[in-house]
Amino acid sequence: MLLFAGMQLHTKMVDATLKTGDFSAPGHVTIARPTGDINADRASGNYDKQVLTLYGHVVANDNGGGLGKLASAGSTTSRGPATLTADQLFIDLQRKTYTATGNVHYVQADSVMDSDIATLSDVTHILDLRGNVRIKQGNRNMRAGHVIYNTVTGLVHAEDNVTIVLPAAAAPHLATPKPIVIKNPPIGH
After folding, report:
1. Is the pTM of this model over 0.90?
2. 3-class SS letters over 113-179
3. Residue 114 sits in which domain range?
4. Domain holding 129: CATH number?
5. Tell me: the pLDDT tens digits for 110-154?
């Protein structure tokens, strides 16, 4: 077990260089955090520099929302629990950032987001999604090259070839005038 800023890394085996702080965990790893957990096929990093890279089938669950909530981040109001999955996740505990690459998938409340790469700042609560970004929020859909999403407020800023698909609105009912019927009209001479 390795300790990182309030997080505990559990695995069956670790190779480490005590002098430099470098380590490698070649098998499945679980990271326990105060607000959730992270699982991956393997990990490497440096415990002195407080950096960690998780590889393969990365799943990060956060009961507090936003995924971050590092021990020093303080509390904020969130939009609820969040889950991030990716092929790889780089965690920089000093900068309080998470960078996910490859098949990135983020779910929080009614928002589902996919992209090639995503960086979450635990300081600003901003999720920066880049490359083939797809968002589904309720019955609304958006595609863009770049999206900035605030995990606390739910606000979205999109740019780079943005397409928004709004739900089909019910056809408005227009008042149809009744035909005027004149019974037995007088015939004029």
Report:
1. no
2. EEEEEEEEECCCCEEEEEEEEEEEECCEEEEEEEEEEECCCCCEEEECCCEEECCCCCCCCCCCCCC
3. 2-165
4. 2.60.450.10
5. 889 999 999 999 899 999 999 999 999 888 899 999 999 888 888
